[in-house]
């Protein structure tokens, strides 16, 4: 229900890579590799203490090969939007090597420095030193193989990389025409706005016939395909939301893909095979077992202003019939003003007096947490939970919570996570729920949970899908990536 303010202030570590011209000192954590003091189940990485390692000497051919790898990779992996800015300016061996090490870190674990991370971006990369593998690649003349191993090893990342190439080509070719505002476009409509709609859709959808100014059944099907790609109601009518999605520029779609590629780099190189993934932006929850999706459901995630944070943690237990200890801010803003009659009718009781008084909603059918609460350690006081308010699950826009994630099928998830427990059989769970008594059911095996923010992703056939950016994180992140890349390009001998 609620995301609290993270009180701990994270101090930026001392800059690394400030070594003499021919050596590198991998004894400190570069700011771009540091993690926050608390990120749920994640721990703060500690860089290994090592002696100074000489920078490898490149042959002329290796230097040429490395320049080509970096310049192409900065574009392919979304580190620079402008191809001209991706050029390597190094003029000597050590500067080129440091540029390669910086490039490797950026592709492997992300472009950002610690100061660039927002408080809500609690999922952050672990420290990684690129020098040992790079030196080995130089010694074995295997730079190409080394570069191929850098990106996140996930099909989701690969799909975005292919999508980035396609949308860069669209941007270079001039993008697409902006559609003018006007009445909703439906089957039977005619005129220049329909012709413009055909031309716009045809840029992304090869099945669309560009010519013609009549909105027919074929065009309706194309609009529905676009609406599904945007996560909108596929009604086939072009109204305000569909028009807004179609009018996002190709350049902005490139930046959106770049931002999502960056977030993939913050994820551990190996995801737990048994896990729960929440796509915050799409408000979707997927359960994986053995790395295969076995359950999917709608969620309700944080509304803008009450963002659901990105994080990784573990669920150890399920609270059956949970009471709701109302956060002070919510109580003061939304509940106390409704008066004592409302509070009593909805099962709230006031605990304490004066400025320290607080609210607790008793367990039961009226509880905002429903019958199930899935706890996991995190500094934001968020969790997954049931809800008595089911209407929102029928909506395509499901960002409405105070930061926690409401679940469409909490009972199914509880049974799945408690499967294998000798105590908590399905019958025992049902009996406990029916009793109305609060209890905590321990999971036989903890379940890893990832709260992720995906606004761009490729489907199995390679088609790019986009979602709205409700928290405005995409543009902010893409700008930070570009800025950090510019800083590094201006001072290649220094780490971020």
Structural overview:
With 496 residues, the protein is an alpha+beta fold. It is 33% helix and 16% strand. The chain contains 14 helices and 16 strands. Strand 15 and strand 16 (464-466) form a beta hairpin. Helix 1 (60-76) packs parallel to helix 2, helix 5 (155-172) packs antiparallel against helix 9 (250-265) and helix 9 (250-265) packs across helix 14 (473-490).
Throw out a few tags for this protein.
496 residues, alpha+beta, eight-stranded mixed β-barrel, three-stranded antiparallel beta sheet, 14 helices, 33% helix, disordered N terminus
Mind sketching the topology for me?
Elements (H helix, E strand, L loop, with lengths): L22 E2 L28 E2 L5 H17 L16 H17 L21 H9 L3 H6 L6 H18 L19 H13 L12 H13 L10 H7 L3 H16 L9 E5 L4 E6 L2 E11 L8 E10 L3 E2 L2 H8 L4 H6 L2 E4 L6 E4 L10 E5 L7 E2 L13 E3 L3 E3 L2 H8 L8 H10 L3 E14 L3 E3 L5 E3 L6 H18 L6
Parallel strand pairs: 3-14, 5-12, 11-13
Antiparallel strand pairs: 1-2, 3-4, 4-5, 5-13, 6-10, 6-14, 7-9, 8-9, 10-11, 15-16
Helix pairs in contact: 1-2, 5-9, 9-14
